[in-house]
């Protein structure tokens, strides 16, 4: 059965880290809760370091969990993103009664994302889904105000519905293939009744598309991100998406391609990117703008899922995910660093007052557009290339048009930043650590883009099942 | 050698930023020394250039997964522009010995900008080209926003940024189109030129050319994408205007010669008429609007639109393969390249002179000036020479350029060239009337003694000081040398433009 607990060391470190954070937080006075944050940060850094240090491609626990290039990439990426989120959330949560809870929930959500990414068995996938979803309900409602309540409730209702549908799908696929492991699905599904398989796959994908925030399950994203704190919003739009997209990629590689699944995924991708972009154009609140921007980004990312199995698709997806995660967290860090500015127009004069934050915002937003030399450009270009080679020319053209359109709303945010401010802008120079997170994320997006060759070397490889 | 030339200014910029304690005077001299050394380096590379093909090539893998390499090299198209760039930047630095506040940051910015310009002209990889293209936009934005004068400086800078940045995205889409259609996939300009990947692909080639052309046309700028130019120039500091008009505009026209024409020959031939029409429109429209200006600097800005129009006319004519001989087409390309160099030198001088005007009187309005020939003879001489050079009087580089442009274009588009020729007449009118207004007439000092006030301070304006004279004189002398002895320049350009003309015709 290949039961090697040590192969799951990164996940175990996160789990134990969550417990240790909870315990240390419980016994510390409120003003010393930062220690719990330190424990959480250490766990995240340790988990990422272990994943980075040693990777032996294998499947463990009866082929139910695959440790391969995709899992390893997410094992580094998800904790790194969460680490940045903890940094950016500090100004908001420090000294709060529920400070430790934020850390614990973020750790558990990260663990869930890694489980999602690595699962090679529908039951593990379902567990990963729950683990990546339930802590987020708490995280979305962490602020305990009206916005947070709406955020949590909306996420909960969608999550519960998608979860039930997903479990139903798991059941149907189990019935059709006679097993839940992906190798069993790959061998059993082609012979199974087609209707059963179609409904089952749609069910499972429903859960994953909800996690990724793809159309038509994207309605929770803007409201939840707007209502929740900037830190929670950053987690919600980064960590679970990363896990869910890799999980979707894995699933699409095992289901019979001749049933037209690529068309289905391509259609979802097209609708998602277009809807997200068009809705983002009209936004005036940075969080909502970012929420819709993440929806459109998921559309581009799903292009790689549509050509799953293509030689270049997996590296493209992983590089794009990494670059997107960094740029997105960086943009949320800017929101966290400027708590007094609630609307896009409030950002007037930011460049003069806080040049570092403004520069980070420029890099992150232009990165999200996909401008060289940021890493998102590499990811986006290779995803486009894979889709083009996979025969999805119209999808690439649509995505290119969407990219050009997306520049409009990112610039709507950037223009006031560089406009002269007529009056003293709202105070809010607080948030040094959020500023640091923004600068670090922006620098990482740039450096990863300049060192693109090394990045692609690191994500070469194939999936295991 | 080439990476050294490209990146030494950026290293100097980093050094200047780090050296917080440096005195302003020292900063200005370091800036000047580095810029002049760059010009010297470019001259040395000119002297030691290979007889043909790319010299000083550097080619190291950058992003292997994308087929993007850090590939630099100089040939007859890029070497003259690289040399011109170093000269214009050196002149700006010398001029700034007595101008510009916060010199440490200004110097760092200009040096960094010089790296992006040199990098762009020597880039042989589309991604490298694009990165430098975008960074130059950011740098120029900072120059206009940070050191511009006038209440609208931030707004003008933003307009410049938005126009050219959106244009650059179109350019990027075009580059990706080229990349996706190439086999094997590559961003390498040399390989793409050899492949001409979209030849025979009809609509796709046209669309990619459209994307590339929009990006380059915004930067050039041509009608109807020129509206960012006048405000950006009006509000930019003098040295910034000199670099913007002298160097940054050439990025657009250079892109046509280096990318659009040789990589998309079929599409370029098919739509050559569009380039001719846009070129003629830009030439005439720029000249007519310049004629109506009351501000000296805006007038010079519009003549840039006019001069870039000639370049586009020539490049379009070079694409009209039917009905012209290859000799004429390569003369047209040579003329266009010469015009880029010539315009860079002359317009930089004119903008530096406009800066002097603003420095002395705080206004560009031509109505506020008169009699400068008597008050400031050095300024008057330099302005008159620069104006005559710009309107294409024989003896200066502008004549060599425009003569070749029209010689090369008349065969294939007699009507277009004939119409554009009117532009030369108009430009002559523009400059002569401007000279008449600001140089002749009663001296302002005389006005002050006569008591006819109304213009505030009516002291005799100071003439050009040493550094200003040196900067402007260097640019004009170079233009004069090219005008009198065009041989050395044409020897470099001609083989390369024959190559481009042949590539377009294949």
TrEMBL record, chain A:
GO terms classed as biological process: ATP synthesis coupled electron transport
Membrane topology: Multi-pass membrane protein
GO cellular component labels: endomembrane system; plasma membrane
Function: NDH-1 shuttles electrons from NADH, via FMN and iron-sulfur (Fe-S) centers, to quinones in the respiratory chain. The immediate electron acceptor for the enzyme in this species is believed to be a menaquinone. Couples the redox reaction to proton translocation (for every two electrons transferred, four hydrogen ions are translocated across the cytoplasmic membrane), and thus conserves the redox energy in a proton gradient.
Main localisation: membrane
Domain NADH:quinone oxidoreductase/Mrp antiporter transmembrane positions: 119-405
EC class (word): translocase
Pfam families per record: Proton_antipo_M
Keyword Transcription regulation on entry: no
Transmembrane segments: 6-28, 35-53, 65-88, 100-117, 123-143, 155-175, 195-221, 228-249, 261-282, 289-308, 314-335, 356-379, 391-415, 436-456
Record family assignment: Belongs to the complex I subunit 2 family.
Subunit structure: NDH-1 is composed of 14 different subunits. Subunits NuoA, H, J, K, L, M, N constitute the membrane sector of the complex.
Cell compartments where the protein resides: Cell membrane; Endomembrane system; Membrane
Protein known as: NADH-quinone oxidoreductase subunit N
Listed InterPro entries: NADH-Q_OxRdtase_suN/2, ND/Mrp_TM
TrEMBL record, chain B:
UniProt entry tagged with the keyword Cytoplasm: no
Stated name of the protein: NADH dehydrogenase subunit M
Topology in membrane: Multi-pass membrane protein
Membrane-crossing segments per the record: 77-97, 106-124, 130-148, 160-180, 200-218, 238-259, 271-292, 299-320, 340-358, 379-401, 413-435
GO cellular component terms attached to this protein's record: endomembrane system; membrane
Gene behind the chain: nuoM1
Organism of this sequence: Mangrovihabitans endophyticus
Gene Ontology terms: biological process: ATP synthesis coupled electron transport; electron transport coupled proton transport
InterPro entries per UniProt: NADH_Q_OxRdtase_chainM/4, NADH_UbQ_OxRdtase, ND/Mrp_TM
The entry's keywords: Membrane, Transmembrane, Transmembrane helix
Name of a matching Pfam family: Proton_antipo_M
All copies of domain NADH:quinone oxidoreductase/Mrp antiporter transmembrane, residue ranges: 123-422
Entry's localization field: Endomembrane system; Membrane
Family: Belongs to the complex I subunit 4 family.
Keyword Transmembrane helix: yes
GO molecular function, one term: NADH dehydrogenase activity
């Amino acid at each position: 059965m290949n039961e090697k607990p040590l192969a799951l060391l990164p996940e175990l470190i996160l789990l134990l880290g969550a417990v240790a954070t909870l315990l240390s937080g419980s016994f510390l006075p409120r003003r010393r809760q930062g220690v719990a944050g330190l424990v959480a940060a250490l766990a995240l850094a340790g988990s990422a370091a272990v994943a980075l240090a040693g990777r032996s491609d294998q499947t463990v626990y009866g082929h139910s969990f695959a440790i391969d290039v995709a899992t390893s990439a997410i094992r580094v990426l998800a904790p790194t993103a969460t680490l940045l989120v903890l940094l950016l959330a500090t100004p908001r949560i420090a000294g709060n009664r529920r400070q430790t809870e934020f850390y614990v929930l973020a750790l558990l959500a990260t663990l869930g994302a890694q489980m999602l990414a690595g699962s090679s068995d529908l039951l593990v996938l379902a567990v990963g889904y729950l683990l990546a979803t339930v802590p987020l309900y708490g995280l979305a409602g962490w602020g305990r105000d009206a916005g947070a309540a709406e955020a949590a409730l909306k996420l909960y209702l969608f999550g519960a519905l998608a979860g039930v549908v997903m479990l139903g799908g798991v059941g149907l696929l189990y019935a059709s293939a006679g097993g839940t492991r992906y190798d069993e699905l790959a061998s059993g599904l082609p012979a199974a009744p087609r209707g059963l398989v179609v409904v089952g796959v749609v069910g499972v994908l429903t859960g994953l598309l909800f996690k990724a925030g793809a159309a038509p399950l994207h309605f929770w994203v803007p409201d939840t991100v707007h209502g929740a704190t900037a830190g929670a919003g950053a987690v919600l739009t980064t960590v679970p998406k990363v896990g869910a997209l890799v999980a979707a990629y894995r699933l699409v590689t095992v289901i019979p391609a001749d049933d037209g699944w690529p068309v289905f995924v391509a259609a979802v991708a097209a609708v998602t990117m277009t809807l997200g972009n068009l809705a983002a154009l009209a936004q005036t609140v940075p969080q909502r703008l970012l929420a819709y921007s993440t929806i459109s980004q998921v559309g581009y990312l799903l292009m790689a899922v549509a050509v799953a199995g293509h030689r270049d698709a997996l590296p493209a997806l992983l590089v794009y995910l990494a670059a997107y995660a960094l740029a997105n967290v960086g943009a949320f860090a800017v929101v966290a660093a400027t708590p007094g500015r609630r609307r896009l127009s409030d950002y007037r004069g930011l460049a003069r007052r806080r040049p570092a934050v403004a520069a980070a915002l420029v890099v992150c937003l232009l990165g999200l557009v996909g401008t060289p030399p940021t890493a998102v450009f590499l990811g986006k270009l290779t995803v486009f290339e894979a889709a083009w080679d996979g025969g999805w020319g119209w999808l690439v053209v649509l995505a290119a048009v969407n990219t050009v359109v997306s520049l409009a709303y990112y610039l709507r945010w950037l223009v006031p930043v560089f406009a002269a401010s007529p009056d003293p802008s709202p105070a809010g120079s607080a948030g040094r650590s959020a500023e640091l997170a923004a600068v670090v994320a922006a620098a990482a997006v740039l450096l990863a883009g300049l060192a693109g060759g090394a990045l692609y070397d690191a994500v070469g490889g194939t999936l295991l099942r | 050698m080439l990476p050294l030339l490209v990146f030494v200014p950026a290293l100097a910029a980093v050094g200047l930023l780090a050296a917080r304690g440096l005195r302003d005077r020292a900063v200005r001299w370091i800036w000047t020394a580095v810029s002049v050394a760059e010009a010297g380096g470019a001259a040395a590379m000119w002297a030691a250039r290979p007889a043909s093909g790319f010299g000083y090539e550097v080619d190291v893998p950058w992003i292997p997964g994308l087929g993007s390499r850090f590939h630099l090299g100089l040939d007859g198209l890029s070497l003259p522009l690289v040399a011109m760039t170093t000269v214009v930047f050196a002149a700006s630095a010398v001029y700034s010995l007595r101008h510009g506040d916060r010199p440490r940051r200004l110097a760092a910015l200009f040096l960094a900008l010089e790296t992006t310009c040199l990098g762009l002209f020597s880039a042989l990889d589309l991604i490298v080209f694009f990165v430098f293209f975008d960074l130059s936009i950011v740098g120029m934005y900072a120059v206009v926003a940070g050191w511009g004068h006038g209440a609208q400086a931030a707004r003008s800078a933003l307009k410049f940024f938005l126009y050219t940045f959106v244009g650059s995205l179109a350019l990027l889409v075009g580059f990706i189109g080229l990349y996706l259609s190439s086999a094997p996939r590559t961003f390498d300009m040399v390989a793409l030129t050899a492949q001409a990947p979209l030849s025979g692909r009809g609509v796709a080639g046209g669309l990619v050319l459209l994307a590339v052309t929009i990006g380059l046309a915004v930067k050039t700028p041509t009608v109807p994408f020129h509206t960012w130019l006048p405000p950006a120039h009006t509000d930019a500091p003098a040295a910034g205007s000199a670099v913007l008009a002298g160097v940054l505009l050439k990025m657009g026209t250079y892109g046509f010669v280096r990318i659009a024409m040789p990589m998309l020959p079929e599409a370029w031939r098919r739509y050559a008429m569009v380039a001719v029409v846009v070129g003629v429109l830009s030439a005439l429209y720029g000249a007519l609007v310049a004629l109506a200006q009351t501000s000296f600097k805006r007038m010079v800005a519009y003549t840039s639109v006019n001069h870039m129009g000639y370049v586009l006319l020539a490049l379009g004519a070079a694409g009209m393969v039917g009905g012209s001989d290859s000799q004429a087409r390569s003369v047209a390309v040579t003329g266009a390249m010469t015009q880029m160099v010539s315009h860079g030198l002359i317009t930089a001088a004119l903008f530096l002179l406009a800066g002097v005007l603003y420095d002395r009187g705080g206004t560009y309005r031509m109505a506020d000036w008169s009699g400068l020939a008597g008050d400031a003879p050095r300024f008057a001489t330099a302005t008159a020479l620069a104006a005559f050079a710009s309107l294409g009087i024989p003896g200066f580089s502008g004549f060599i350029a425009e003569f070749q442009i029209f010689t090369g274009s008349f065969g294939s588009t007699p009507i277009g060239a004939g119409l554009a020729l009117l532009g030369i007449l108009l430009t002559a009118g523009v400059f002569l009337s401007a000279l008449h207004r600001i140089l002749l007439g009663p001296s302002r000092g005389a006005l002050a003694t006569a008591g006819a006030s109304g213009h505030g301070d009516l002291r005799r304006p100071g003439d050009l000081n040493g550094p200003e004279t040196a900067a402007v004189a260097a640019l004009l002398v170079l233009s004069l040398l090219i005008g009198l002895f065009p041989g050395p320049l044409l020897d470099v350009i001609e083989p390369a433009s024959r190559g481009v003309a042949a590539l377009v015709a294949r």
